[in-house]
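Sanity check record (used in CI):
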Amino acid sequence: MKVTGPTGSSASQPSRAGKAPGGFSLGGAAPAAATGAAAAAAPLAGVAGVSALMALQGVEDATERRRRAIRRGGSLLDRLDELKLALLSGAAGDGALERLSRALREERPVDADPGLNGLLEQIDLRAAVELAKADLRRNAA
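Expected output for Class II flagellar assembly regulator:
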């Protein structure tokens, strides 16, 4: 079998004994029909291969979900630190609250590890508590 490029592979070339110098075969019509069918199917196989690759890129594996979950948890912890520093400096921390709220609204991927899920739930809860406390302060003022 010979690989001819991005369109796929083709059957090995027939011997040159039955071919005329112009490149056509003097044999029966059956080999020509088979070659024509293979040539017509080759572009379709190329499209199917590209579609399969695109579908695989869209599938998220467990490692990538775990990475995204950890990244989101780290981002929430960073936003909580920003809020803490803003409150300790005496500022209202409105920008830090907005960033914390935005980070909390992001979808959290569920990981197979129950320990990691528990930790991420605690981080989410702490962020929600800080947002609720800020809302109470805003309403009391």
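The first helix runs from residue 29 to 58. If this sentence no longer matches the regenerated tokens, the check is flagged for review.
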